[in-house]
Amino acid sequence: MHSFFSSDNKNQRRKLNKENIVRLVFPSLSTGLGKVPIGEAVPVACNVIKEFLSKHKFNEHNNDDIGSVELILYDPDPNVLKAYETQLSQDIKETRLRLVNELFTDKMSFISGLESRKILEAIGPVLASEIKKAYSKPGIIIYVVSPNVSSTQSNPVIISESKKLLSDAYRSMFDAFLCIIRGEKYTPKGQEEKSKTESKEKPKSAFDVLMQGSRDSSSSTSKSSFGKKANKGFHWQNALLGYLENPEKYPDNEVYFYDNEFVIIWDKFPKAKKHFLVMPRRRINFIDELTSDDLQLIQTMKEKGEWVIERIKQEDPKLRFRMGFHTVPSMKQLHMHVISQDFISPTLKNKKHWNSFTTEFFKDPDEISKTLQENGKIHFDKDFYEELLKAPMKCHLCKKKMNTVPELREHLLKHWNNE
DNA sequence: GTTCTAGAAC
DNA sequence: GTTCTAGAAC
């Protein structure tokens, strides 16, 4: 659960009282990728919702210090909502529960495919601004993001078990909600036991391990390289190298493809809905190391890029792509970006990000090949190209000048929605 | 490369 | 007062 008011201190929370409406916005759990049949999941959800509402009748007529509460259940699937409507209409008329279909769907579309942590980081500011528009008196709104289930991860559903899990999930969500609005600390049930019995270390993503500096290509046998001292030898510039050596060790959502010669990864901080890096496995730190002998390499990278684009377009034909190289890359190992042209992404955060994909800073593979053919080498003037990154931002589609990143974001969304 | 935050811009 | 950027730190 993520409260985007989470930075509020307790005093501010105390100010919360009857005149405020506290809204919990939450998804229908498990009816999407969770694949629990609607007919099974919806009654379970409704029972817990009704249980919660009847237990906590804090509205304008009572003395609870919490204020009025409204539950807002959202789901993009109209069939799911219909099922809730039907289920709930059999009982009381409950004005404190609202069913919402297109809840900020457009604005939230950028989160698809992001890992949960990134969603949490990104969603708060967007949501806050949307809610300001949607409600004149927004009060406090706590928004629950649905678990980021990968379709490849879903296992067969055992109905009897999933029902129990589901009601537990809703209950703990409501418990956490109450704790947050009361300014109390929320401790998930059974957490203490767990930490005693299973002191198992949380699995880290390969990237995180890398970023912590465990990697040292010359002494991979040394276990002590996990110590603090080894961090000295690690730099973020090397973050891509691990993928080259052991692409098989990474999950599907990090490494998209590999063979003996190439590795294609999902960019860890995508600057658009779809953003990949195509890398040769042969060690080439930077583009200026290329010679005319590498024309075939560039050609093959381009073909790999086209192959990825083809596949992704089958999933979403609306996407357009470009591929290319940064003239002054930050990270070691030659990598070609394959990036969709929506540029809708919470990790596109600043002018430098924008200009690095939409100015001459970004070079087509064909242009690289051409230069290699003509000159036998590649050289990009660092000062010149870095200066391009500081230029005023312009929309890549309509050339309109963009003054701030939020303005750019909004503008890009309009293009995406064909407005 | 990202994160963090001071202070500029509004 | 709040939003946003830019530069230092990592």
Automatic annotation (TrEMBL):
Compartment(s) where it occurs, according to its Swiss-Prot or TrEMBL record: Nucleus
Residue ranges constituting the HIT domain according to the UniProt record: 241-348
Chief location bin: nucleus
BP GO terms, sorted: single strand break repair
Ranges of biased composition (kind: Low complexity): 214-225
Highest taxon of the lineage: Eukaryota
Keywords (A to Z) from UniProt: DNA-binding, Hydrolase, Metal-binding, Nucleus, Zinc
Renumbered residue ranges of the record's region Disordered: 189-228
GO (cellular component) term, any one: nucleus
Biased composition (Basic and acidic residues): 189-205
PROSITE patterns, per the entry: HIT_2 (PS51084), ZINC_FINGER_C2H2_1 (PS00028)
Single GO molecular function: metal ion binding
InterPro entries: HIT-like (IPR011146), HIT-like_sf (IPR036265), Macro_dom-like (IPR043472), Znf-C2HE (IPR032566), Znf_C2H2_type (IPR013087)
Official protein name in the record: 1787_t:CDS:1
Species: Ambispora gerdemannii
